[in-house]
Design a protein that fits this description.
The protein is α/β, with parallel strands linked by helices. The protein has helices at about 10-15, 20-25, 30-35, 75-80, 90-95, 100-115, 130-140, 155-165, 180-190, 215-225; strands at about 45-50, 65-70, 120-125, 145-150, 170-175, 195-200. It has 10 helices and 6 strands.
Length: about 230
């Protein structure tokens, strides 16, 4: 029996066991399998292990997406991307410029194509901003779980977005986000007491600040000790 003799339901089930690259490779063999590959029902879960993978043409965004994870566990995040902008060398800024907008641009596409998203996890995404998070909350109104980890540009404004737009949120985690404050956490808890809110280490870390005219060395030393 030839593969293409299977009905649509069986082909979708078969594709569901394949990773993104294998799905795309199989889809290039004939029009019928390409149509199966493009079926939104196949893409209810997406996982990316680096922002660069967002550039690849091996996935489909659509209304069936329910679970999205972007995790970047790389030494580059800690040694380059997580450094405050004013402390970066020109070489480090050049490295960041090659990928800093990737996740934000991708999340914009998610906002406009994935209204049924239920769970979003962003880890090591050092360049995403509060506006990225707020936009997801505004457009993906069915979102139930939000997990932000080691996202250094995230501030209390994202928690304000949770309080204002998180009507269906059940769980929010902001772990190792150094610009989250205890006051921001407390305010969010008071405005949305039904949300299970947790923040591992976030409010205890040294927040970003612009260099003080008479004390740049102390700030630099603090950052060095924090990441050493």
């Amino acid at each position: 029996m030839h593969l293409t003799q299977l009905n649509r339901e069986c082909l979708l089930h078969l594709f569901s066991f394949l990773d993104k690259d294998s799905r795309r490779s199989l889809s290039l063999t004939c029009r019928q399998l390409r149509e199966v590959y493009l079926d939104p029902c196949l893409w209810n879960l997406l996982h990316f292990s680096s922002p660069c993978q967002l550039r690849w043409d091996n996935y489909v965004l659509g209304p069936s997406l329910r679970y999205l994870t972007i995790c970047w566990y790389s030494s580059r995040v800690q040694l380059v991307c997580n450094i405050e902008d004013w402390l970066k060398s020109s070489f480090q800024r050049d490295i960041c410029s090659r990928h800093e907008s990737l996740v934000s641009t991708f999340l914009t596409h998610v906002c406009h194509t994935c209204p049924n998203l239920l769970t979003l996890t962003l880890s090591g995404c050092a360049h995403i901003t509060d506006q990225d998070v707020v936009s997801v909350l505004q457009w993906c109104k069915k979102l139930r779980s939000l997990h932000l980890e080691n996202c250094v540009r995230i501030t209390d404004r994202s928690l304000q977005g949770v309080a204002e737009h998180g009507d269906n949120l059940e769980e929010v985690r902001v772990d190792f986000c150094r610009n989250i404050t205890q006051a921001g956490l407390q305010s969010c808890k008071e405005r949305r007491p039904v949300i299970q809110l947790s923040a591992e280490r976030s409010a205890d870390m040294i927040p970003d600040s612009k260099p003080e005219e008479n004390d740049p060395l102390r700030k630099t030393l603090q950052k060095f000790l924090q990441y050493s």
